[in-house]
Amino acid sequence: MAEIHRKPHAIMISVPYQGHINPFLNLALKIASNGFSITFVHFEFVHHRLSKAHHCNKTHVDIFSQARESGLEIRYTTISDGFPLEYDRNANFEEYWGWILREFPARVDEFVGKIIQSDPYLVHFLVADTVFSWPATIAEKYNLVNVSLWTQPALVFTLGYHLDLLRENGHFPCKDNIDEEVNYVPGIKSISTRDLISVVKESEQGQYSMVESVHMGFDQVKKADFILHNTVYELEAETLSALNKYQPNYAIGPVNFFKNLPSYTVSKSLWSESDCTQWLESKPPSSVLYVSFGSFVLTSRQVIEEIAYGLLLSEVNFIWVVREGILSSGDTNIMPDGYEDEVKDKGLIIPWCNQIRVLSNPAIGGFLTHNGWNSTIESMWCGVPMICYPFLYDQPTNRKLVVDDWKCGISLCDGTISVDRKEVAEKIKSFMSGAASKSLRQEANKVKTILHHALEVDGSSQGYFDRFIKDLKEKIHSTITSIE
Ligand code: UDP
């Protein structure tokens, strides 16, 4: 009986990538601000990496202790994935995901079991990443309400949810270079096979663990009590309405911009200011192209070189976040020899920045992006049009949404990964100042308005969040009463 008088309590755990961690952190703060208690779980290696990152203003520990000072109940803890801290998880991606798929669930089981053993009434619900292969099994075993957070657009979710339909229609596995129409998935009017998530592509089938993981994740999510989406209803209404026929889905995004949290957000506080701001202030409005390919994408030296010289040939000002681990060869020397000398004041090459702050700067006129979902939604939040250069996973599908549906971006290349510096230069020049640039900016501003309004008190995402909290409380109550 005593537990009913406590705050309902969740364990929250995301996969260990930046694009998942940020939405989880913001959601944790938002749920805690609504009268819940949270145990936030990081992978141990992520905790170490974030704690020692020299450009961090605040670690997650600082953020959570600040949250506690302002009255929120958030505990912070870590779980080991079973590998030493120094193990290179990106370089050994296949082995690592194989382990996460098969061995990690037993660790989560033990971890949740221990918390519950210490206090059988402590945990009421689980908020886990849809990508994991274990949430339904664990929730069922410990009688927890099961909340799944999907950090990408609903279109991508729907494709994963209906893998069986893709298979029946010969599109899973899907030949790499075919262009066929997919018009049989509920909630998707039409999508080309070229824009499908990369895990269904024939060439990806060697990535057994990732493909299997997607399979298992989508099997598990079919047993979730609630599915939260980091998207906005107005942008994906048809897809979300179709999904609601199967399970309760709530479009609550953009999660990284939730309002009325304690006076900081993770995205703003995690990375320090660099000298970007000063450099940007010396440039005219809308004149600078921001270039970043996210935290994980691996590519070839040749692609980097063509983009690098394409940028120079375009004569457009640019800021380029060049992450050390971006080359699939593992080389850390990424830029062509002498490149930075040639760039002079035309460009700023930096290892990391506060992306949202950079995108919000009036000097930024466009974003050359890999279309990771966070980058995509951050660009739209700031009303910045995109040049899309997707590589893997959800990125080709996100490109389709940006270019074909929302019309706030263009593609760098049409359906191919190979790039040529002259074409890059032409594309960038016309994107930044050509005839189409005005309408791209107008469309970007329309999408921006939709996103901002969604989080207002009377906006759709705030409405869905409120409804989720109400439904969650009812579900927790009925679960507790049923075990008494
Ligand atoms: N990011 C950042 N500074 C950078 C580059 C990226 O803060 O210099 C953040 C960006 O704001 C986004 C996340 O890292 O929130 C990248 O997520 P996304 O989904 O775009 O790509 P991923 O890294 O998952 O491929």
Automatic annotation (TrEMBL):
The keyword Acyltransferase does not apply. Keywords: Glycosyltransferase, Transferase. GO terms for molecular function: quercetin 3-O-glucosyltransferase activity; quercetin 7-O-glucosyltransferase activity. It holds the Pfam family UDPGT. SUPFAM superfamilies: UDP-Glycosyltransferase/glycogen phosphorylase. The keyword ATP-binding does not apply. PANTHER family: FLAVONOL 3-O-GLUCOSYLTRANSFERASE UGT76E12-RELATED, GLUCOSYL/GLUCURONOSYL TRANSFERASES. Belongs to the UDP-glycosyltransferase family. This is UDP-glycosyltransferase 86A1. It comes from Sesamum alatum.
